[in-house]
Design goal:
Strand order of the largest sheet of chain A: 1-2
Helix content of chain B: 25-40%
Helix content of chain A: over 70%
Structural class of chain A: mainly alpha
Radius of gyration of chain B: 21 Å
Distance between the termini of chain B: 41 Å
Number of helices of chain B: 15
Distance between the termini of chain A: 7 Å
Largest sheet of chain A: 2 strands, antiparallel
Mean pLDDT of chain B: 85
Number of strands of chain A: 4
Oligomer: heterodimer
Order of helices and strands of chain A: HHHHEHEEEHHHHHHHHH
Largest sheet of chain B: 8 strands, mixed
Mean pLDDT of chain A: 87
Number of strands of chain B: 12
Order of helices and strands of chain B: EEEHEEHEHHHHHEHEHEEHHHEEHHH
Structural class of chain B: alpha/beta
Strand order of the largest sheet of chain B: 6-7-8-3-9-10-12-11
Shape of chain B: globular
Low-confidence stretches of chain B: 1-26, 374-382
Low-confidence stretches of chain A: none
Radius of gyration of chain A: 25 Å
């Protein structure tokens, strides 16, 4: 088991390095010239070349990539120019490890920008995840138990409705009616636990995470319903009933145990991708999470920031994959790892 | 059915027939099923999966229920355990288990009896066991439902039962998962699970169908051993007449949800009087017997239970219906009547001289050696 985890971690690590190279190559293959961007509109070719050198974009891409990797491990300086350090050390920005790059646009290290955004996205993702897992499984089980009745059809129809609504619609709807028109809740805004305590943090996150949860919940309702119904027609459920177990024990110990196991895979990957930021929801509610940061980076052609965010997201997904696989070995005895 | 009210077994004078069980007959009767009907209402109409089934089973005896897929064998046994969804099933008639009519019990009362008074083992032990729990966990669970014991005591009992059914190193194997067992061991474990509460009755629903032939014999041997030891009644559901010949004291042949022939095993296997039973016998390959013997499959498919054939349900596939005068087979359902060789053997057929037809037309084809009277009797072969 340990050997398996170590092996998965090593292969995951290699995958991340390859990912970084691919991301790097893709972004430098884009027609946008970062030096021209930094230099401004009225920029002579000479000045542009100078900027390019100052920013380090004159080096071959592979060298830039190895510099980037070195920066992640050891930190680096922007621009990396020993001569400049002697003459004007105040113009040099230090980017401590793990350095994911330096955003000229924000005049800050990518690591810092991401570090500020992660708590927002993480809070959103965790709250939404809890809501949609509880809601999705609960309503899915109810629908399965009441299969074919009005309750079942109602649950499936409503969940389909929320799945069909784009999150910006649900988000704006909740925002407009609950916060502005009916004033049931304060205007949502992110307050960290350190600043406002758990209560304020929770209230501030309720609407955006509900928006996300309603969207994701739809899929989980339908999957839970299908898996529970499937497990109910299994022979081992008939065995459990034939033993004389009470129906609740049959449902919880036998049916749900089998039905919810496949949900773990979905849940792990969905959570990971949500960690990378809910682009639309964060923008609707104006939350400074990774999603909003990614949009800002893309629209302002902030290449280092974009590379950093893409890499981080890829890392989340890779780690989530490993966690799900390892978890599976624990919850399904038939899965043999190694 | 409404067009032929006189042919409805539910309303026919069943009490005059000796093979019809009566719950008052003796304390030895474990199970007595009377006029059991299991109907499934669907949007297309009512599926009469079991329609007027009666039989009884005494302690220490084995009843074999034989029939093709869809003849209602498994449905009737699930009804004994009350495993049908009451919302989608209509069950009527009487099922007396140890003198109590199960169909009058509440769900909670029924639950107390499941696994304690009657247990069931299933066709495919791999799918019948939960893949996420150890074999021991599942056996312990079956024991603790009906016995107020600690986990430790229940586990000791589970190990004891596993040892009894012939699982090697039961102390260790008790913690294995079902997928770590072989097919035969899984079925042994299922038997251990079924017998752990010492039920008076065990229903075995095609217990050997999913197993290798060599393992089949071991499992049947084990069941017979345990039956002697626990003195339980066994109802074995199968389409394999070989299993019946090996195990059963009585045989009940089902077709389209009804009994078509019922009687002592030896009697049914040697002097069957119903063409469907002949068909089943003709479909069994005989490894010891004559190479001249032919396998004759029954033509056609089992009928739809939604719209069963009029008259005798078997008549569209029956090779001997032209021997019945008139159009009787098509128009009138035969009653379950006493066979030509005396009480205890009942059949549902219009044929007037089945014995003669069997000896002159059926037996010479399927077992020429038996027909010539040279080969040993089936019973001796056992």
């Amino acid at each position: 088991m340990t050997a398996y985890i170590v092996r998965r971690l090593i292969s995951g690590f290699i995958l991340i390095i390859v990912m970084s190279l691919v991301t790097f190559l893709l972004f430098f293959a884009s027609p946008i010239d970062p030096a021209k961007q930094a230099c401004g509109k009225n920029c002579s070719p000479a000045l542009q070349a100078q900027t390019k050198k100052a920013l380090g974009y004159d080096e071959p891409v592979i060298l830039q990539w190895t510099d980037f990797l070195k920066g992640v491990v050891a930190g680096r300086e922007y621009p990396n120019d020993p001569a400049l350090r002697k003459t004007a050390p105040e113009t040099i920005a230090h980017c401590p490890a793990p350095c994911l790059g330096y955003s000229r646009y924000s005049n800050d290290t990518v690591t810092n920008l991401i570090k500020n955004a992660i708590p927002v996205s993480l809070s959103l993702a965790i709250l939404a995840f809890i809501m949609w897992i509880i809601g999705g499984v609960f309503f899915g089980v109810i629908a399965a138990l009441r299969k074919g009745t009005v309750v079942d059809r109602g649950i499936v129809a409503v969940s389909l409705l929320f799945f069909a609504f784009p999150t910006f619609f649900t988000g704006l709807f909740l925002y407009q009616f609950i916060s502005i028109k009916w004033k049931l809740m304060p205007i949502p805004q992110y307050v960290s636990i350190a600043d406002g305590g758990v209560g304020t943090w929770f209230v501030g996150l309720l609407l955006p995470s509900l928006t996300l949860a309603l969207f994701y919940m739809a899929g989980y309702v339908r999957m839970t319903r299908a898996f529970v119904l499937e497990s109910m027609s299994e022979d081992y459920l008939r065995t459990a009933n034939a033993k004389g177990l009470n129906p609740r024990k049959v449902l919880i110990k036998h049916s749900l145990r089998a039905a919810l196991t496949p949900l773990v895979t979905m849940a792990g990957l969905d959570f990971a991708s949500l960690m990378g930021g809910a682009i639309i929801t964060e923008n609707v509610f104006n939350y400074g999470g990774l999603g909003k940061l990614a949009v800002t980076a893309a629209t302002s052609l902030d290449l280092p920031l974009t590379v950093g965010i893409v890499l981080l997201l890829a890392t989340f997904v890779i780690i989530a994959n490993i966690i799900v696989d390892v978890l599976y070995a624990f919850i399904d005895p038939r899965v043999k790892v190694g | 059915m409404a067009r032929h009210p006189t042919t409805d077994t539910g309303r026919s004078p069943v009490t005059t027939q000796p093979a019809q069980p009566s719950p008052a007959r003796g304390g030895d009767t474990v199970l007595s099923v009377r006029d059991l009907k299991v109907h499934f209402p669907t949007s297309d109409g009512i599926v009469k999966a079991v329609d007027g089934l009666s039989y009884e089973l005494t302690r220490g005896k084995t009843l074999g229920i034989v029939g093709e897929s869809g003849s209602g064998k498994s449905v009737s046994s699930s009804a004994i355990l009350g495993l049908h969804d009451p919302k989608r099933t209509q069950v009527s008639g009487h099922i007396f288990l140890n003198g109590v009519d199960l169909l009058t019990l509440s769900e909670a009362e029924m639950r107390q009896r499941r696994g304690r008074e009657v247990a069931m083992i299933f066709q495919d032990p791999l799918s019948a066991m939960h893949p996420y729990y150890t074999v021991g966990n599942q056996i312990v669970e079956a024991y603790r439902v009906h016995n107020d014991v600690t986990k430790k005591q229940a586990r000791a009992r589970a190990v004891e039962m596993l040892a009894r059914v012939g699982i090697p190193q039961p102390n260790r194997r008790v913690d294995d998962y079902p997928h770590q067992f072989s097919g035969g061991m899984r079925q042994r474990a299922m038997i251990a699970m079924g017998l752990i509460n010492d039920p008076g009755m065990l229903i075995a629903d095609e217990p050997t169908t999913a197993l290798d032939v060599t393992v089949q014999a071991q499992i049947l041997d084990l069941l017979q051993d345990l039956q002697r030891e626990f003195d339980s009644a066994i109802m074995i559901i199968t389409h394999d007449l070989g299993v019946v010949a090996e195990m059963a004291d009585d045989v009940l042949v089902m077709y389209a949800g009804r009994v078509v022939e019922y009687g002592p095993c030896r009697e049914i296997l040697t002097h069957p009087e119903m063409p469907y039973t002949w068909g089943l016998l003709s479909s069994v390959p005989d490894v010891h017997g004559d190479t001249d013997a032919r396998l004759i499959p029954i033509p056609g498919n089992p009928p739809s239970l939604l719209t069963p054939p009029t008259g005798c349900a078997f008549h569209p596939r029956c090779l001997h219906r032209d021997k019945v005068p008139g159009d009787l087979c098509r128009t009138e359902m035969p009653l379950l009547v006493e066979g030509n060789r005396g009480p205890g053997h009942t059949k549902r057929c219009h044929l007037a001289n089945p014995e003669q037809i069997y000896e002159t037309e059926v037996l010479p084809v399927i077992a020429p050696d038996l027909a010539a009277g040279l080969a040993p009797d089936l019973a001796e072969e056992k």
